[in-house]
Design brief:
alpha/beta; about 40% helix
Length: about 200
């Protein structure tokens, strides 16, 4: 499925992703801190809801091996295309893409086989009240992947399989996901928060 057909494109070289890699602040970024990056430690991660791969690419650019799991055939194809172009581009983009492994399937089934240190879960969130505030790209993505109605099931599998921690990426002011334990701590940004569940 091409970007022409979906209205989406996976670009790890230019645009916001490339800029974020070049000038994003390294291990001091909220996502990196939530995932457990420190000056002397680089975790192994699984991005269980890969989407367009931006968070995974950032974490891989910091030196981490990252496995991306995507169950939508359309989005998986876009990710594969983006990774192929990054590898062909050479340089830092190719080096980063070389640390990324893309899997097709349901993370609930795959996580027990992967035994990851850290699992990142970024489910499709409910639409905001004012649809004008939702970026066009997010609307297109939601139209393809749906609402992630089983996100709570995925979180329980992640908590049972991650050997170090699970990071739940969530809108800053959204209520916590029902049925989960209280997070060990949170890292909050302007519009997003990371609920961190320590499992070690």
């Amino acid at each position: 499925m091409s970007g022409d057909k979906t209205g989406l494109v996976c670009d790890f070289i230019g645009g916001a992703v490339g800029h974020r890699q070049r000038a994003g602040g390294g291990r001091g970024q909220a996502l990196a801190r939530a995932a457990g990056f420190t000056k002397g430690r680089t975790p192994t991660l699984v991005d269980a809801t890969a989407g367009l791969g931006r968070d995974a690419f950032l974490l891989a650019s910091l030196g981490a091996p990252v496995t991306l799991v995507e169950r939508s055939p359309e989005i998986h194809a876009l990710l594969q295309d983006g990774l192929t172009r990054a590898l062909e581009a050479g340089g830092a983009a190719a080096e980063t893409a070389g640390r990324m492994t893309l899997l097709f399937g349901d993370a609930k089934a795959l996580l027990p086989k992967l035994a990851p240190e850290v699992v990142l879960v970024d489910p499709m969130h409910p639409p905001r009240g004012n649809s004008a505030l939702v970026k066009k790209e997010m609307r297109l993505l939601r139209a393809i992947v749906g609402s992630d109605a089983d996100a709570d099931e995925l979180m329980h599998v992640a908590l049972a399989t991650a050997t170090k921690r699970v990071v739940l990426k969530y809108p800053l002011r959204a209520d916590g996901m029902a049925g989960l334990p209280k997070p060990s701590h949170q890292i909050r940004g302007k519009t997003t928060r990371y609920d961190v569940f320590m499992t070690a």
